[in-house]
Design goal:
Blueprint (H helix, E strand, L loop, with lengths): L1 H18 L2 H28 L7 H6 L2 H15 L7 H10 L1 H28 L13 H9 L2 H4 L8 H6 L2 H30 L3 H17 L11 H4 L16 H21 L3 H19 L1
Length: 294
């Protein structure tokens, strides 16, 4: 219990540093402007037809590969400074211990991922204020954009698919999209942390950038089977339909991918902090083995 409390304090310390970081604030501002710009066409269409917009833009935004690219690029930047070992690291590590420190980093990554997704959700709603109407259905605006070419006429920058409108209720689509997005950002953050810590270089950040770009490559008809290994793609509920079913990419597969992946990465992210101890132990075994051979 004491280790967990120390881990929580470490995660809170990291969150405070993140919130006050100019780098992070700049990225959030850019993403906020990007989302607002993407929703501008929806607002113009709403003004034209004099009909309110239901606050369900988030599922459409995250299921557009360009919007998803920008949002996940922001996630990579959020964790690019992993393993978060600033000046405070050398002060806190001896007092907290490696176990608490490692667990604190895992809690921080998952918590920061959740806050980041909540920020994205908030920014998908705020621009609609003044044009918003509430309801449990998609509403006429999203339905029209999905089933007609109104989006093209008003210069809509992201896709609103008829598949989502026809197959999912807005509340379900919103809840699942938030959950998948949180899992995806957490997966990326843990992977970046593990590889950066393991190598002592920005290898994890580069791999994270690769996965972000992988989705847009697949979207351009490049190796569709690779969707099975693309967390960015699996965070989109529209991915669980069409030709992807040929490769057994189902919603159950996506959930299993994130649950297993996050669990494994959490364990690895903790164990990697004991790398030096493991290396010393292996060296001792090697010395003993050499001595026996003599």
């Amino acid at each position: 219990m004491a280790d967990f409390i120390r881990a929580l304090r470490i995660s809170v310390y990291n969150l405070r540093r993140t919130i006050s970081s100019i780098r992070i604030l700049t990225v959030l501002l850019i993403i906020a402007c990007f989302i607002t710009q993407n929703l501008q066409a929806v607002l113009e269409f709403s003004d034209f037809v004099k009909i309110g917009i239901t606050p369900y833009s988030f599922p459409h935004l995250v299921n557009d590969y360009v919007c998803q690219l920008v949002m996940m690029a922001g996630a990579v930047i959020l964790f690019c400074n992993a393993p978060f070992e600033d000046d405070g690291y050398f002060y806190m590590l001896p007092r907290a211990g490696k176990r608490s420190w490692a667990l604190g980093q895992v809690i921080y990554i998952v918590s920061a991922s959740f806050l980041y997704v909540m920020f994205l959700l908030l920014m998908s709603i705020l621009p609609l204020i003044g044009h918003m109407e509430f309801g449990s259905e998609w509403g006429k605006i999203w339905g029209t954009l999905a089933k007609t070419d109104a989006g093209v006429q008003f210069g809509l920058l992201f896709s609103v698919t008829e598949y989502m409108i026809s197959n999912y209720s807005p509340i379900f689509a919103l809840a699942v999209s938030v959950l998948l997005e949180w899992c995806c950002v957490s997966w990326l953050g843990l992977m970046i942390y593990f590889l950066n810590k393991l190598t002592g270089k920005a290898v994890g950040t580069c791999v994270g950038a690769f996965f972000v770009l992988l989705d847009i490559c697949i979207s351009n008809d490049w190796m569709p089977w690779a969707n099975r290994f693309s967390p960015i793609t699996l965070a989109q509920i529209n991915a669980y339909a069409g030709y992807n079913l040929k490769y057994h990419i189902t919603f159950q597969y996506g959930i299993a991918f994130f649950i297993i992946g996050i669990f494994v990465l959490r364990v690895l992210s903790i164990l990697v902090n004991y790398r030096e101890k493991a290396e010393n132990w292996l060296q001792k075994l090697e010395v003993k083995w050499i001595q026996k051979q003599r």
